[in-house]
Amino acid sequence: MQVFAKTDIGKERQINQDFYYVSDNNDRYKLCILADGMGGYKGGEIASNLATISAKKYIEENFVNVARTKEALQELIKKAMEYANAMVYEKSKTTEELEQMGTTLEICLIYENRAYIGHIGDSRIYRIRKNIMRRITTDHSYVEELVKDGTITREEAFYHPKKNMLMKALGCANKIEPDIMVRGFLENDIMCMCSDGLTNMLTEEKIYNIIKEDPENSPIKLVFEANQLGGYDNISVIIIDNNK
Fold first, then answer.
1. I want to staple 235 with a disulfide (CB 3.0 to 4.6 A). Which of 55, 103, 150, 197 is the partner?
2. Is-contact 125 192, C-beta < 8 A?
């Protein structure tokens, strides 16, 4: 298994409010985390950094004591997200400048051919298996709600002016309801974790084609393509390639 990642400030922003973490080689598990912060001058940067580091800390400190069952590992991810939420929420109350800060958070823990996933916000996780890429996560956004109830099509959502309006984020309240799930992660599968700075610029078809052509260099190429189209937001990509 190999992991390739890149984050970029983009063409329009003054600060990169995206943050990610990829664990070192570990025989027990592989941990990847991605967060896209929001709120005020440096507030988003602080929120995404703190959420990522807090979730990492919780998982690393508690993994050894958790039963290796599917249910227990999903609960570990859930508690890690709740812990990260508490850390960001408490930090937001320390100064007026940090009020209303928050972040998306994607956690992907790979253990024994399974991906244990935690998700809140509108960053995304995709899985490529053979020649098909499927989105695993569902955006917690206003536009996604419109798609669900049939008000607009998926194609219309891509260009909708309110597509960045979140319905859920981490750190904005003392309690959260993240999505927790587990998916198979077999040999030759590829996982893509990314912030909306990528998916707001490139279609899923374009993302898939770039990853399939060259997984190792795809984070660099995806960031380049997003910037070529305007780079209106920070862009972050993590590729987990299970090519053994």
1. 197
2. yes
